[in-house]
Amino acid sequence: MKILLIRLRLIGDVVFTTPAIATLRRHYPDATITYLVEAPAAPIVRENPHLDEVIVAERPRGLRRLAYDLALGLRLRRARFDLVIDFHGGPRSAWLTRVSGAARRIGYDLPGRFWSYTDRVAWTPALVPPRHSVANQGDLLQPLGIAGLSHGTPPVEMPLSTQAAAAVGARLLAAGAHDEDRIVVVHASASSAYRRWPADRFAALGAELLRRHAQVRVLFTTGPSERELQEQLTAATRTLAGRDGSRVLSCGDFDLAELRALVDRASLYIGGDSGPLHIAATTHTPIVALFGPTTSERSLPWRDPAVPTLTVDAGPLPCRPCDQRRCLPGDFRCLTWVTVEQVVTAASQLLTGQND
Length: 356
Fold this sequence. Notes:
It is built from 13 helices and 12 strands. By secondary structure, it is α/β, with parallel strands linked by helices. The chain folds into 2 domains: 2-144, Glycogen Phosphorylase B (Rossmann fold); 162-351, Glycogen Phosphorylase B (Rossmann fold, 3-Layer(aba) Sandwich), CATH 3.40.50. β10 (268-272), α10 and β11 (287-290) form a beta-alpha-beta unit. α6 packs across α9 (256-265) and α7 (199-212) crosses α8.
């Protein structure tokens, strides 16, 4: 049996498909399973032990996209897949699913997609009622007689790259980190402004953690286009921390494989609801997750419940969750009402093992 899975992007959403990949492998141990993904999220699944092949789709613009997708569609058709599952549900993935020619094609029952699939699964809105994205994607396995996924079973996964681990270890050593140091990775950026905790609070958070925990070193990470923010936070935290500022590490940018290795080495990860949070969830490192317009019901790290994970948010608000297109109160209160002390308290609980 030949199976094709499609989830083109984004990083967190690709991570969320990995429990379904493991489940499919368990049910079809002899199948050939291929995954189609766009380049930015490809490292998530490139070394997945349950996959036989990863096809990386380019994303050209204009007429080049048309020619490229026609060629890609022909490639998929020639592969003669028996089953295609479209985890993405967008126009491009739906079209590729249809032209694959697979006898069985499973996708969400969304407007304008009926012609793409032989099996259509009801789409459960992410906002009302809140439901985890992994559970939503697990629904696509039900036409195959596979029961829905329960939280953390199986967990999300991204195998550790030994090459990335060695590179990260060398960079940490060059930056002054030692084996006994407890590194706190603080991811300070998000793809959407609606999920971005104020930068000055990240700096205050780092300084306070350094003050309270003598063996801690703080390392800020950001997206690849936000190196300036990373440098600003590093400098601001060093200033706020005074003598303790020497324990703020600076190591530059990390690609996804390196980020996964970095969090694996860390004692704690702190960050908002973004792709890196869910990469962190593939490790056994404790997590403090900051939620603003999204909720833990939808995006809590999907991992073994025994691995410590604490969430911090502004509490129940009538505007939360939202569609992240407009802040109705106008003050982004779901984020601005989250205090530094809340996050420091959660982080300290995990650093001292008092999270029960």
